[in-house]
Every structure is written in C-alpha cells, then in structure tokens.
Design goal:
Layout (H helix, E strand, L loop, with lengths): L1 E3 L14 H7 L6 H13 L4 E5 L10 H10 L3 E6 L7 H7 L5 E5 L5 H8 L4 H13 L5 E8 L7 H10 L4 E6 L4 H5 L1 H4 L3 H17 L3 E5 L22 E8 L2 E8 H8 L2 E2 L16 E2 H7 L13 E7 L2 E7 L22 H15 L5 E4 L10
Helix pairs in contact: 2-3
C-alpha cells in the first residue's frame, strides 16, 4: 500500500509532481483515525507492506510515529520516503526510525550546491547527510536513495549514485520527471530523453552491483532501459493500492484505488504507433503525452523479435543471462506474457549471439536458454 498521509513540504523542488495536490489539501492531512482504519482494512485484504509517503514530506505529519507503530502492530513491513529534513533532527529520528524497515532518502545532487539548487531550499543537502547518518546508527532501517533525473543533474548522476552508496544505500532508484503538478508546466525543459537512460543505465547498474547494491528505475517505458528492463519498478504499480485524499461533496474524503490505472491516467500515458510491434508492449505502462510532445516517437526503441537476444538480470548472487531462442510453445497459459507470433531465432543468429557472449562467460557464470518453450526449437 502507498499511503499518502500529508500535504506539506519544506522544499520547493522544480520537478515536484505533487504541488497541485499540496495546495488543494494542505489543510487536510489524514487523521490518525483515518490512517489506522486504512491500515486495518488493507491488512485484512492481504496487503503486507505499507509505504508512508505524501504529496509532500510525510515526516511533517504530527502523528507519523503513531501511524508507524500501528502498522508494525498490524504486521506490516514499513517503508518511509523522505527528503530527510526532519530526520536530521536527532529527537525526530529517534522517534521514527525504530519503526521503519526501509527508508528511502531523496538525493538529487552530489554536493550542496547542486542538490539545494534543485530542492530550492538552502541547507537541504546538509540535513540530508545528517539523516543518512542517523539511519546508519545502530540497527537502522535498510537504506535506499531516490534521484529524479533532470537536465540539470543528468551529468552528475554517477557521482550522485556513488555518494548514495557511500552513505549506505543498498538500492539506488532513478526516476524520470513525471509530468504532473509543477513538473508538468516545465516538462520539456526539465526532463531528459529516454536515450539518456539507454546510454547510462548499464554502467550505473554495474556501479551498484560492485557495491553489493542494486539499481532500479521508475517513470520510463521498458524500452528506455533496453536489456536492463528488469530493473524497472513500473511493474510494482500493478501490485500497489494507493490511499490518499480526494473530495466528496466538496469535503475531504479518502480514496482507495489500484495504483496502475491511476498512474496511467494521471500522466496521460499512451502507446503510440512506435510501440505497436514491441515485444514488451503488454508489460509496459507506456509513454506520457508530454514526453512525446517534447521528444517525439523517435525517442522510443521498441523491443524487436527479429534476432536472438540475451537479457541481463541483476540478481543478489550476481548477473543472470537469459537467451531467448523462440516464442513457440505447446501450452496456452492464461498468464503468459510471451507474444504468440511464432518467432524463432535462426541457428546462425544464435551462434553469433553465443560468440558475443563467450568473453563474458569465459570466467564463469551460466547462460539460461528460454522461450517460449525452448524445447520446441527444432535446432536446440
């Protein structure tokens, strides 16, 4: 569950997607009764993890500690997404962090000048560093970082990721600017093209792996990540329920919705002609209309089925390589996500792919053959 508990924030990030909702509901944070009721209802539904976030900064909520305690009492795994401004205060950190299993801290620059320029709040970087330190003290929560990639910080993302890893992050999440709120008004100036992701994600994923951590990506279609598409967090949207403020009869009320349809509608995501033949079309959440307006369909790179290809999956024990040889199968599983187009790789294509992989596999490691059903390939 994504639980948006408040609508206040001490920063004014240029890329903020929640500015409109903060303005609308600033005086109507969720009450502790509403929070506990939502936790109880979703726990009965089988929800196991709750992310305390906000259309703003959740640590500004005066009853956050009580909400976290209630979640732990109900058996939830707890997650907190924060800019670190309040967690820099020792007393505040002591009250909150013992109840947090995973803490995501928003890091948008590798030094004070670059970070504070994006948050539009002098001193925010120094507070964030203190929040990282507080989270590392004792048996703190599992740490992750969140970085919104913009035109302003895109050349510093590797340095930002290295800093996050040095601060103890075990997952580095990169997020594309989302065209909502303040960010929608200036999307073309703020956002980077998807080509940036294709060019930079491989090295960033390797950087995280060398530190025993992982990279994840959000807000971009799968084709923006190329063979690293399994690093996308977009698939998590289909497994998430969101609880936040709405209006009913002009009065503040609670809204509970599956997050995927809301995310598609809120950013007006579409699948243009360039996506028509993509092999991962059904898995992908699509492209926001403002991105197409700013960069055009030429920024997309649909997954094709014309050649043997290997996907690289980051695993806790290293890297797994999966070579797809066909789409044929003798079963018709209702949950299948492989295209039913009958494609199979020619033997020459497979040999060329194996030649390309040989240097990578020479020092050890396994290659998995997959399909479809690989045993249906006549030259297996």
């Amino acid at each position: 569950m994504e639980l948006l508990i408040g609508y206040a924030c001490g920063q004014e990030c240029a890329f903020c997607m929640e500015s409109d909702r903060m303005e609308e509901f600033a005086a109507a944070p969720l009450s502790i009764a509403e929070i506990v009721r939502a936790l109880a209802v979703q726990r009965r539904r089988g929800v196991e993890s709750v992310s305390f976030c906000g259309s703003g900064e959740p640590t500004f909520h005066p009853r956050l500690a009580d909400a976290l305690k209630a979640a732990k009492t109900l058996g939830y795994e707890t997650e907190l997404i924060s800019n670190g401004s309040r967690l820099a205060e020792p007393e505040h950190a002591r009250r909150l962090l013992p109840w947090v299993d995973r803490l995501w801290l928003s890091l948008h620059g590798d030094d004070a000048a670059s970070h504070d320029r994006l948050t539009r709040r002098p001193g925010s970087f120094a507070k964030l560093r203190r929040a990282f330190a507080a989270a590392r003290a004792g048996k703190g929560p599992r740490l992750g970082s969140v970085t919104v990639v913009t035109r302003e910080n895109r050349d510093r993302v590797a340095a930002i990721a290295r800093l996050a890893l040095e601060e103890g992050a075990r997952e580095v999440q990169l997020t594309q600017v989302v065209p909502m709120g303040r960010a929608e008004k200036d999307y073309a100036r703020l956002a980077v093209p998807y080509s940036w992701w294709r060019e930079n994600v491989p090295a960033l994923a390797e950087l995280a792996r060398r530190h025993g951590a992982r990279l994840s990506c959000a807000g971009v279609p799968l084709c923006a990540l190329g063979e690293h598409w399994p690093l996308s967090r977009e698939k998590d949207l289909a497994l998430t329920v969101s609880v936040d403020r709405t209006r009913s009869g002009g009065r503040p009320a609670l809204r509970t919705e599956e997050l995927l349809p809301r995310a598609e509608a809120a950013s007006t995501r579409v699948k243009p002609e360039a996506c028509a033949a993509c092999l991962r079309r059904e898995e992908c959440i699509g492209v926001p209309r403002p991105h197409l307006a700013a960069f055009g369909e030429g920024d997309l790179a649909a997954f094709g089925g014309g050649a043997a290809r290997t996907e690289t999956h980051a695993q806790s024990g290293g890297v797994e390589r999966i070579l797809s040889v066909n789409h044929a199968c003798n079963q018709r599983c209702p949950f299948c996500f492989i295209p039913g187009d009958g494609w199979k790789a020619e033997l020459g294509e497979i040999e060329r792919e194996l030649d390309r992989l040989a240097p990578e596999l020479a020092g050890g490691g396994a290659l998995t053959l997959s399909g479809g059903e690989p045993l249906a390939h006549p030259r297996l």
